[in-house]
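Crash report, auto-generated. Payload:
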Amino acid sequence: MATAQISSHIRNNPAAPSNVVRLGRPASQAPARRNGDIFAIAREHASGRRLVAAGSELFAEGEASDNIYIVLDGWLILHRILADGRRQILDFALPGAALGYRAHADVPFSFTAEAVTGAEVAVIPLSRISQLLYRGSDCAMTILEAANDALLGAFDALTDVGRRSAREAVAHFLLRMNRRVQRMAKSDGGGSIRFPLTQEHIGDALGLTAVHVCRTLSALRADGLVEVARGRLRILDKQALADEAGAFLFEFDDARLAS
Amino acid sequence: MATAQISSHIRNNPAAPSNVVRLGRPASQAPARRNGDIFAIAREHASGRRLVAAGSELFAEGEASDNIYIVLDGWLILHRILADGRRQILDFALPGAALGYRAHADVPFSFTAEAVTGAEVAVIPLSRISQLLYRGSDCAMTILEAANDALLGAFDALTDVGRRSAREAVAHFLLRMNRRVQRMAKSDGGGSIRFPLTQEHIGDALGLTAVHVCRTLSALRADGLVEVARGRLRILDKQALADEAGAFLFEFDDARLAS
DNA sequence: CGGCTCGTTGATCAACCTCAATCAGTGTGG
DNA sequence: CCACACTGATTGAGGTTGATCAACGAGCCG
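Recovered output after restart:
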């Protein structure tokens, strides 16, 4: 976790416009559009449903399977574990997430999906996905958008882990999770949200230890920025938290959710 | 960058099978299949081509555009820069990579694409992608696979940055890049490959400073594992390097490339 | 030759890890 | 109802990885 390694390429590339200027609230103030309805795909194309108890696995790294999954309810984590037990959480899957796509049924999963809360998923045969793509439909667009959303989420996580301090990373992480939950619920709320993650989950997502997450959260709490306790999260000052995260408020401002 | 924070969930979840056992060379020894031919899409659907000089940008974070791009030649980096200049490299784009997909043309890019070497890209209108997906074709599958490959690459990077030490991360990074280049070239070779990245690029990809990358590479060199110099990379002992990376050799063993 | 980028090496420092103990909350069986 | 176990959160003390600051060398180019 870096403190402030400022790469010299900035000075070295005078042609590049200033990043800050470039980023400043893009002219095209496009409302964030929602995905096409992935739940409709789950309804229409699932071969079945599956319940996953909290703490147990939907699928594991190295397994092969003919299916992919769409989360209908609950939270899951996608993670990978190194030989000596270190764990990296790659993503959190909330309702509406599509999980476990692979090019072919005989390519094994490259990560494990484990339920954090009790969860329910729709099971969709990979062959069905191929059909949908090959024959064409607006499903294809929805599926691609789901994949792209996951990619952008991974990029956010990578930036948190690679180039933000623990305090910045945790602040940014809370904003991101808050945004995801509120989008899902289509609530813009300043209210508290359900937040079933332990400090160990947060640490394993951000490349930190649970102990250090604890200290960091305590500090953010003491500064009056957030409330995190007993499975709930409330962001008290979104602007201040975005400042701490080294991010722009508008990235997390879903007033203009729409669509 | 962690040393060995071993999350307690291992002990706590006796139901979960041992990760090592689970990972051990998957039964389905499926040959890694190549993408559908993304170059064919570039040929058939591009509205034009564009040359990008080394060090200049193909597009920048915050810009909007009607296009996506497919790399025909050269290397690019995808990165994001924080307000104070810290940079995170999100991915490297080699020939065959698809860049810049967004759900709609008015959604701005969320990262910058900059050429490392001189590069040539095919320009494809987003509307064309929508058509392909809506009308259906095997292109749809190819595009989804490209997105999924990018996602898995991001997951690899996330694991390197979050849970591997500098030495492990650099070792794993070199193996990953080596695999990508060799897949692209369809060469299985034990030979040296073109490797136009600076130590600062490696650092910005792995959340390290260029100085520490230098020390780490020196150590790997001194141990007879790799040669990295003057724009070329040669892995001298893939097995040993995979051991250093805390990874399995077969992940990087492309003897069975095929398809 | 001067200027520039990139790589290398040394000395010091701090962010975050490790180990360890304690506590609160929850569930469980007697 | 209570002792007990267990998970998750908290706090302290000390250690280590990797950052920072700085100087210098090698290669390249106009």
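Post-recovery validation: DSSP finds nine helices and eleven strands in chain A.
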